[in-house]
Write a structure and sequence with these properties.
Number of strands: 40
Distance between the termini: 78 Å
Oligomer: single chain
Radius of gyration: 55 Å
Strand content: 5-15%
Number of helices: 66
Structural class: alpha+beta
Helix content: 40-55%
Largest sheet: 6 strands, antiparallel
């Protein structure tokens, strides 16, 4: 049985549970779970990451943790009871975990690895905290590390800044907002500006001296040297090296590592150097023989120097090599480092480089040279490691603990550090051995002098171990100087430290002994003199600092100096000698100089100090001593602080009358001395003295009296300096007064209490009087007032020790209240006054509620005054922050509520004004000033928020009642709404301050809810105020739209926290908006349409509740607008305008569209205006669909078809449905940019043409728009024309560019702008040149079907034809489409899908190649027109495309499959022609017809004959580069025929059974026979031409072809051609009911006679007797077993359009494996040969061999292609077999007109211009009944097309293996067309006819209007029709080829849109706005 848990409430999953049991809850390791119930080892609960899903899980999988439960029961909340740092770590690491993986995905490797290390560190630290074995200090340290790393990670990942107090997260509800702001700002500042350390330390580690042939031990001495002052600033670090140049004691790191401590920031400069002096220990001369002398001396060796500035980069200089320089002249040794530095400085000045720019890193440049010193001759360098450390020494110990644990010597600064610490015990005497002056002593050369030093007691005993050479070496008992060779005036400059204890100091002296060092074999050291100096004088003073010239007392070598009494009576110094003058001058010739410097906290050199301390022995000197105290050095006073103070108070007790004032002044001097930063740390010493040692119980009377005397004199005194000193010291004076009074009370039991109170009161009255005085003149008085105020707050805590807190508060209030309040007081005094107020607020006095209530009014009074003047805002902000820090949230104490009353009354208004004032100022430019500016703003904002959060209902009510008039209330509301809008700005707080923003928003929404009530009560009905309501709504909208409230963007954990704490504030505010809107009533009209945009923005936020609340407002707006104006055009217009801009910003989604639609439709159900409402909602919904699709597409990286298609869809929607011209133009330019980016230059030109066509050539001014400047309409149109021409040029669509060139040239001509006209004509000429000279690629076209509901709206269940890219074949196109739609499934057939596919929740793509059918055949059929001109007309302005699908009907004959092979031909008609504004357009209409096997055979032969004619013609006119294509074509046909190709047709259609069973096909059979005979004629002529041009090496092949041709003729039963020549063309009057086909007319003269052209490419009889029809697609490149043309073993020649797929396609005989392979999925074509424009690896000679007739290609042709194109341009398209498909009869709507072409000179005898019908009879004539001269008799009711183009490789880029379509034009249509031509030849601007059938206008107008065509407004110019192949002069004019009777008339009566007569519908004429 399941029972609720009591204690097991919270746990962590320790093993993953898959939840496979019933009701199981799936859990991962690390998930936290909340447990609700338990039962037999199972728990029921939920994971905190997904609280909505509850389930059961085993209890053993969960580790329980302690937790406390809030709100027990159904909605209980569990909070783990663990350290808050642990909780934060856990949740943060969870959040990071997800984001960390995303870093990997985004390839941010660096951050990924850094974060990984940090996460591991945090986990380690977390373990340490959880174990719980850390000490308190260590725990603190660990938490500090954790929080630092958490903050770093959060910052790197862009997460929120976490406010913390003592490393724990702070709940913003538990502290005041001002305190929260300070915590946030502190963490922000910490993050931004690291605090500069004031203390620095230099770590030095000696490694080795690299030097060859050392052989002697060395001493290395490091010190820091100030080159500016030419003195050392540190002690020395001394270490010894062995003979190999390595440290002597490597096991003792303190011997070779040192830390130079306590360097101030001022010492980190370029002129501070590290100097290294090296002394060798050995023989006198470096090159002496080993046996010369056994005694060792200290001798100068070398020196190295490095500027400390080179270490400021912060990097450790691990392997620094300092170059060592040696001194050639020993007398210069003492200043060798200075000489090196001087040269080094010269180098710095030259290059500005660092010392690191030397031969080795650091050190000295090798270019240095000097006469006195030089670099070592052999390679020498000092290897050291140096590092500069920053921070307090204790911090360094923590951070570099390893350095200290191994051992390091400490090298101090010379003397005291910058800050002297109390308790610091030092007694160091520094002696520098400077120089000596010695006589030769009877020698011929100078002496080698060595100085030995001892410290000797009075008794003659030598003090042991008190001479320190440096920090690395233990102290020694004696010192030996180095020896300078033959030098009687040696200079040493060696510094020694003597750390002698104080008790040994008195009576001790230093003795210096001088010896001559012999260089002889014995190497004796002979004593020749000595000097001494006592350490302390007789009066108790120590040896004064400075240089001392000591007397050298001569002595004998064996003199015993142990008896000190013998020489101590002698004079020791030249100064004393000259003073006493009792010694002979002779004794003073030799001298010895030393410099001494004492650093002691126990001994003094100052006599005045000693006199003061010994005042009792000399009472008469007291006055003098007290006067001289100001002259004594401060360090001397603080050293003896306690003794000095005891002395002063002792003197005061002795005679207060006489010495009271002097003692007071001395005390003031000492107190102020401690204000100095150097002695600041001695304040605690004085505090301790007052608390523990001070004993002056009566002193308070004298101190109060003297202090009052000074205060009373302030107003009269001229010089205020001394008085100011007194006032500065008042804090400690009061401390002494209070302590003295307490001691007196203790001693007397509280006597004279009243008297003491009166004294204090009188003193403060004097103060108040002095403060209330106004400064006149000099301002010295105000200075004194400032001094008093700055130190007055420190007195409060002292007064509290004796008085009640209320008394003190009243005293302080009176004192502060006495300050003058006038504004023109000295600014400095104003600032100090505020500082005093600030310190008061920060004081202990203010924290008590009782005293606070007394002090608050005076504090607020001064604040109000300053804020009103906008002065000292930083200080005001700080004070206010402190005021609010003390008022905690939800504090309901009466005192707090009263305080809030006072603050609201005094400050709320001025606070609002101040924030408005600050935020409206321009921000200062300096970064420091800007930070300050932001701080002030932030603090004031925090204060305002704190105040508003503390206000209760009562406070709001009082506030609103306090306004006397509605105007005042209105101003207040406007002001507070404006301030709230400012607070909501993103820049108000740094972006990671989400915590602060949420708190601010919570306060704002609470306040708005209070104030909205006042708005309703006071500003509705007759008092309605638009401005204030507008301000309210505007605030509410921007509040909801804030980024920090968009919870959907948060992580789940963050979202959960926010919802738990604040709920969704957007919904609350949305409900408030709705409520306020409902209250408006008829005033709503004021806000329509202004608020539509803002409210729409709110509804687009993806919050369902908010949408449900806000969307109904639109219904309300529609209703009120309907009432006002009878429609809601305004609402509609605004909705549409705003939707576009908002959705393009990424707002809104599909859910919103559905919700908008459903809510509003439901709302308007019962409205009278329901119909128009539904229409509006439908329009807006459709717009949303398109905008959402557009936005989704635009998210893609690269420009693809989807983006362009989507933009086109939206553009058309704005134009046709919404008639929004401006939006339409905007999207034109967006589409234009997309095309340019994708390099679709032709489409870009067509797109820009849309805007161009909206403009006219007028001078109307247009405003600035998009990137266009303000200009006239003419100028803009000119600019557009030029841009369009440029794009047509880049897209190689030069013909269109020419037309535009002409248009603009006409304008230039009309304005006589000949300069530009000339340029334009040249441009036009250049375009003609490009047409002739440059090669153009012809694209392929592909039909794409998008099926299924998952496609975007603009594609869903629609089919399109797409213009492929250059070189793009079907396979590449398929792949591109699948990449664009990665979720799509490729369909494996070409059948129309059924309804289940349409409705499927998926994406299906159906792709196959289609053949373009050009509208105009004129250019294509004209002879002599170059291919590079024709190529344009083959693939441009194409409306119609065709696709053929072969299938077998009935039983398939395996021996001859042609008997049952039918072709289903599908024609597709587009809404717009290609190319256009897009690379693809939707299919508007499809027609399906079926071709019988016989018709198919006829078409194949027609195409092959046409191809042969073309190749022969090209060969004759030398257009071919080589003869290979003709060779291959002849070979293909002849070889196929020989092997049974044509005979298959004979077997299929010429047999008796077929003729009997198909009596209606008699004419067609005759036609097929004629085509066979015609082919034989063409082949014979072709072989004759071939023989003429065939190269020698191909002669055998030619002979073989001739032989095979005779075999072929005999198989056809042909002996001679003469019998066949007279055969008349066959015409089938009835035609086939299934097919609509059409042949191109032969060139005929009006009178029926044949027109003979001037040039005759071919000269053989009756060749052009039957004009072939066009070819749609060409032969397969690979054999297919299911198809053949003329032979079963050879493929069709290239002109034959195969109706079957390649072997890779789903042909009827393919195995299933191949049928369903991936390659089949989109019906990709096989590899196939292509034209010269599309190079392939296959040579031209091989191409046609792949394509000859009969190699399995199914017969198929396009009757609408002219022969020349078909000859070399095969284009197979992909297909799919559908044997069961019924033909669909689609209505035909007329003929597509051809676009006009640039005119050519008219040819009067052009056959094309005189084509006419010969007979009106619709019946065809049998060739048996008509002569060969008789022409066709076309039907008068039909019109004839000049021919529809084929697809060719030049056109389509691939050989189509798919379904070609048949022409829809029958012979009878020709007549109508030709009549039309003749009828229209006269009218029109052009000299020639405009070609089009009777229903041409209907056909033309049914397309999308001409913005998409260059030709809309182009003048129609006559275009001559092309020549067909010419025929011999003697031949009769041939009859037109017979055509089957088409079903055209029936189709024309179907009433479809295409066939409607009359003009084509165009968009409504609109007036172009001034865009």
């Amino acid at each position: 049985m399941w029972i609720p848990t009591e204690h097991e409430k919270y746990g962590v999953v320790i093993a993953s549970f898959r939840g496979t049991v019933p009701y199981g809850l799936s859990l991962e390791i690390g998930d936290t779970v909340q447990i609700l119930e338990k039962c037999d080892g199972w728990y029921r609960g939920f994971a905190l990451k997904n609280p909505n899903v509850k389930g059961i899980f085993p209890s053993s999988y969960v580790h329980l943790k302690n937790a406390c439960v809030k709100n027990k029961g159904q909605f209980e909340m569990v909070i783990p009871t663990e350290d808050s740092v642990i909780t934060e770590m856990t949740s943060t690491l969870r959040d990071w975990g997800t984001m960390w993986k995303q870093l990997y995905v985004r390839n941010e490797g660096d951050l990924f690895h850094r974060l990984w290390h940090i996460m591991n560190e945090i986990l380690d630290l977390r373990r340490q905290v959880l174990v719980g074995h850390l000490t308190h200090d260590r725990m603190k340290d660990v938490k500090r590390h954790i929080t630092a790393r958490l903050d770093w990670g959060n910052e790197q990942l862009g997460l929120d800044l976490v406010p913390r107090k003592e490393y724990a997260m702070v709940d913003p509800e538990d502290i005041s907002i001002t305190e929260l702001y300070r915590l946030m700002e502190h963490r922000h500042r910490k993050k931004d500006t690291p605090v500069q350390a004031s203390n620095h330390h230099l770590f030095v580690q000696m490694k080795s001296l690299m030097c060859s042939n050392l052989g002697e031990e060395l001493e290395v001495i490091f010190s820091l040297f100030d080159s500016k002052e030419n003195r050392p600033i540190s002690e020395r670090f001394f270490l010894r090296l062995n003979r190999n140049g390595l440290p002597k004691a490597p096991d003792k790191p303190e011997r070779h590592c040192s830390l130079f401590v306590d360097l101030g920031s001022s010492e980190l400069r370029r002129d501070i150097y590290i100097t290294v002096h090296i002394i060798r220990i050995g023989r006198m001369g470096a090159g002496e023989k080993k046996n010369a002398c056994s005694v060792q001396y200290r001798r100068p060796f070398g020196c190295a120097v490095l500027s400390i500035a080179d270490l400021l980069t912060g990097e450790t200089k691990d392997d620094l090599i300092l170059k060592v320089y040696m001194c050639n002249t020993e007398s210069e040794w003492y200043q060798i480092h200075e000489n090196i530095i001087k040269k080094l400085n010269a180098r710095y000045n030259l290059t500005g480089s660092n010392a690191g720019t030397c031969d080795q890193e650091g050190g000295t440049p090798s270019s240095l040279s000097s006469q006195s010193w030089d670099t070592m001759s052999d390679l020498r360098g000092l290897a050291v490691s140096l590092q500069l450390l920053h921070g307090d020494i204790e911090q360094i110990r923590r951070e570099y603990s390893s350095v200290f644990s191994h051992g390091v010597s400490i090298t101090r600064k010379l003397g005291f550090s910058n800050i002297i610490m109390p308790g610091e015990m030092r007694n160091d005497l520094y002696i520098t051995i400077e120089r000596g002056e010695f006589e030769k002593g009877g020698k011929s050369v100078a002496r080698n002098v060595e100085v030995t030093m001892f410290i000797v007691e009075n008794s003659g005993q030598i003090l042991k171990d008190f001479i320190s050479f440096g920090s690395g070496e233990p102290p020694a008992s004696e010192y030996h100087s180095f020896v300078l060779y033959h030098n009687n005036s040696p200079r040493w400059s060696e510094l020694l430290k003597l750390p002698i204890p104080v008790d040994k100091f008195r009576g001790a002296h230093i003795r210096f002994e001088f010896r001559h060092c012999s260089t002889k074999e014995k190497g004796e050291k002979k004593l020749f003199g000595f000097s001494f100096v006592p350490l302390m004088q007789e009066d108790g003073r120590t040896l004064p600092d400075g240089t001392h010239e000591l007397i050298v007392h001569k002595c004998e070598e064996n003199t015993n100096l142990q008896d000190t009494t013998r020489y101590l009576k002698l004079p020791f110094s030249k100064g004393i000698l000259l003073g006493n003058n009792h010694q002979a001058i002779k004794a003073t010739k030799e001298s010895f100089w030393i410099t001494s410097f004492l650093c002691s906290t126990k001994l003094t050199q100052n006599g005045d100090m000693l006199d003061l301390l010994k005042w009792r022995t000399h009472p008469d000197k007291i006055t003098g001593c007290l006067s001289k105290i100001k002259e004594i050095d401060g360090s001397e006073i603080v050293k003896f602080l306690q003794d000095t103070l005891d002395t002063l108070f002792g003197i005061l007790d002795e005679n207060s009358q006489k010495y009271g004032s002097k003692v007071f002044d001395s005390l003031v001097h000492i107190i102020n001395l401690l204000q100095d930063s150097k002695f600041h740390h001695f304040k605690p010493v004085m505090d301790t003295y007052i608390e523990s040692h001070f004993a002056g119980a009566l002193a308070y009377r004298d101190l109060i009296k003297v202090l009052k005397w000074y205060v009373d004199r302030i107003t009269e005194a001229e010089r205020q300096e001394h008085i100011q000193e007194v006032l500065k010291a008042q804090e400690y004076i009061f401390k002494y007064i209070v302590q003295s009074r307490r001691l007196f009370s203790l001693a007397t039991g509280g006597q004279n209490e009243e008297e003491f109170r009166c004294c204090i009161q009188e003193l403060l009255m004097s103060v108040r009087f002095f403060l209330s005085q106004e400064s006149k003149g000099s301002g010295a008085l105000s200075q004194s007032q400032a001094v008093f105020l700055s130190s007055f707050p420190a007195v409060y805590s002292e007064l509290l020790k004796l008085f009640d807190i209320r008394e003190v508060a009243n005293l302080v209030q009176d004192t502060l209240g006495s300050l003058p309040t006038i504004v023109h007081v000295d600014d400095s005094l104003q600032a100090v006054k505020l500082q005093c107020i600030g310190k008061t607020v920060e004081s202990q006095l203010y924290t008590n509620p009782d005293s606070r209530y007394i002090l608050l009014p005076v504090v607020l009074h001064h604040l109000h005054m300053h804020l009103q003047e906008q002065k000292d805002l930083i200080m005001c902000a700080r004070i206010l922050s402190n005021v609010f820090c003390l008022i905690k949230k939800n504090s309901s104490e009466k005192s707090v509520l009263e305080e809030i009353d006072v603050i609201v009354a005094s400050l709320l208004d001025i606070l609002l004004r101040t924030i408005l004032e600050i935020t409206s100022r321009p921000q200062p430019s300096g970064s420091a000033m800007r930070l300050q500016f932001q701080d002030v703003t932030g603090e004031f904002v925090a204060c305002l928020l704190s105040l508003l959060r503390q206000m209760t209902d009562r406070h709001y009510q009082q506030l609103l009642d306090s306004f006397n008039t509605k105007e005042e209330l209105r101003d207040f509301l406007l002001q507070i709404f404006t301030v709230f809008r400012i607070l909501i700005r993103p820049e108000m707080f740094p972006k990671d301050w989400t915590v602060m923003r949420l708190v601010a928003n919570n306060v704002i929404i609470t306040t708005v809810l209070y104030l909205s009530d006042a708005l309703r009560k006071n500003f509705l009905n007759e008092n309605f105020d638009y401005k204030i309501w507008d301000s309210y709504f505007y605030l509410a909208v921007i509040f909801i739209n804030q980024l920090c409230l968009q919870l959907e963007m948060f992580t789940p954990s963050k979202k959960k926290k926010v919802l738990e704490k604040y709920g969704d504030m957007r919904v609350t505010m949305g409900c408030e908006i709705f409520s306020m809107w409902q209250n408006l009533g008829e005033h709503k009209l004021h806000f329509i349409p202004a608020l539509i945009g803002p409210f729409l923005e709110v509804t687009l936020i993806p919050q369902p509740d908010l949408r449900n609340v806000m969307i109904p407002i639109f219904h309300d707006m529609m209703d009120w607008e309907q009432r006002r104006s009878g429609n809601f055009k305004q609402v509609e217009a605004k909705l549409i305008d705003k939707l576009d801009s908002l959705m393009s910003e990424g707002k809104g989604d599909e859910t919103y569209r559905e919700l908008f639609n459903s809510i509003l439709l439901k709302k308007i159900e019962r409205e009278t205006w329901r119909e128009s409402g539904v229409s509006l909602i439908a329009t807006v919904t459709r717009l949303m669909e398109r905008l959402l699709d557009y936005r989704d597409c635009m998210k893609m990286g690269e420009v693809d078809g989807k983006k362009i298609g989507c933009t086109v869809s939206l553009l058309n929607f704005y134009k046709t449905e919404l008639n929004k011209e401006e939006m339409y133009i905007r999207y034109i330019h967006k589409l234009y940019d997309l095309h340019l980016k994708a390099q679709n230059f032709t489409e870009a030109a067509y797109t820009l043409l849309l805007y161009d066509e909206l403009l006219e050539w007028s001078d109307r001014p247009l405003r600035e728009f998009l990137t266009y400047p303000m200009q006239t309409e003419w100028q803009r149109k000119e600019h557009l024309h030029l841009a369009i021409i440029q794009n047509f040029d880049r897209g190689k669509c030069w013909e269109n560019g020419i037309i535009l060139c002409r248009k603009i040239a006409e304008q230039y001509e009309s304005y006589y702008d000949y300069r530009n006209l000339s340029k334009m004509r040249m441009m036009e000429a250049s375009l003609y040149d490009k047409i002739m000279d440059q090669q153009r690629l012809e694209p392929e076209f592909f039909r794409v079907g998008f099926y299924g509901k998952k496609f975007p709206f603009f594609l869903r269940n629609k089919e399109f034809v797409c213009r492929g890219h250059d070189y793009e074949r079907l396979e590449a196109f398929q792949q591109r489409m699948l990449n664009e739609f990665p979720q799509a499934i490729a369909m494996q057939h070409a059948n129309q899908p059924d309804e289940t596919i349409f409705q499927a929740e998926a994406q299906y793509l159906q792709i196959y190649a289609v053949t373009p059918i050009p509208e105009s055949q004129e250019v294509l059929q004209r002879e002599g027109v170059p291919d590079n001109i024709k190529s344009f007309y083959k693939v441009n302005h194409i409306w119609k495309f065709r696709y053929d699908r072969p299938f077998h009907k009935g039983t398939k004959d395996k021996e001859n499959e042609f008997k049952s092979l039918w072709v289903e031909r599908t024609s597709l008609y587009l809404v717009q022609s290609l190319p256009g504004i897009s690379r693809w357009f939707e299919v508007e209409k499809r027609e399906v017809v079926e071709m019988s096997p016989l018709e198919n055979a006829i078409e194949v032969l027609e195409n092959k004959n046409q191809q042969l004619k073309t190749l022969i013609s090209q060969c004759q006119t030398r257009q071919m580069q080589n003869i290979n294509p003709l060779t291959m074509c002849l070979n293909g046909v002849i070889d196929a025929a020989v092997n049974g190709g044509v005979s298959r047709y004979q077997e299929a259609f010429f047999v008796k059974e077929y003729i009997l069973s198909h009596p209606e096909d008699g004419e067609k059979i005759a036609r097929l026979r004629e085509l066979m005979l015609e082919q034989a004629q063409i082949l014979e002529f072709g072989l004759a031409v071939h023989e003429k041009f065939v190269p020698q090496d191909m002669r055998p092949l030619h002979k073989k072809l001739v032989d095979q041709f005779f075999v072929m003729k005999s198989s056809l039963g042909i002996q001679e051609f003469s019998a066949c020549i007279q055969a008349s063309p066959v015409h089938f009057p009835n035609g086939s009911p299934r097919v609509c086909r059409n042949s191109a007319p032969a060139s005929m003269s009006p009178d029926g006679t044949r027109v003979i052209p001037r040039r005759s490419p071919l000269s053989y009889p009756a060749v052009n007797r039957y004009s072939s029809s066009s070819l749609s697609s060409q032969a397969s490149a690979e054999p297919s077993p299911s198809t053949s043309s003329l032979s079963s073993t050879h493929s069709a020649s290239p002109n034959v359009t195969s109706s079957a797929p390649s072997s890779a396609r789903a042909s009827p005989l393919l195995s299933d494996k191949h049928k369903h392979s991936r390659e089949n999925s989109c019906l990709s074509p096989r590899e196939r040969p292509c034209s010269a424009i599309y190079p392939t690896p296959v040579e031209p000679s091989q191409r046609l061999l792949f394509n000859h007739i009969g190699e399995g290609a199914l017969p198929r042709s396009d009757p609408n292609l002219s022969a020349p194109e078909k000859a070399v341009n095969p284009t197979p398209s992909s297909w799919s077999l559908d044997s069961g498909k019924e033909a669909k009869n689609m209505s035909d709507s007329g003929k597509i007109i051809s676009p006009p072409v640039p005119p050519r000179p008219t040819q009067t005898a052009s056959p094309a211009r005189h084509t006419t019908s010969v007979s009106p009879s619709p019946a065809g004539r049998s060739p048996l009944k008509q002569g060969s001269v008789q022409s066709f008799t076309p039907s008068p009711v039909e019109y004839h097309s000049p021919g529809l183009t084929s697809n060719s490789p030049v056109l389509s880029g691939s050989y189509s293996s798919g379904i070609s379509s048949l022409s829809r034009c029958s012979t009878s249509e020709t007549s109508g067309f030709e009549n039309q031509v003749n009828e229209q030849s006269a009218p029109g601007p052009g000299p020639g006819p405009s070609y089009g059938g009777p229903d041409e206008p209907g056909r033309k107008e049914s397309k999308t209007p001409p913005p998409y065509s260059v030709y809309e407004r182009t003048l129609r110019r006559p275009v001559p029709l092309p020549h067909s192949l010419s025929i011999p002069v003697a031949a009769e004019p041939p009859a037109l080829p017979p055509k089957p009777l088409a079903a055209r008339p029936g189709h024309l009566e179907n009433g479809t849109r295409r066939t409607e007569p009359g003009p084509r519908p165009r968009p409504l004429p609109r007036k172009v706005s001034q865009l």
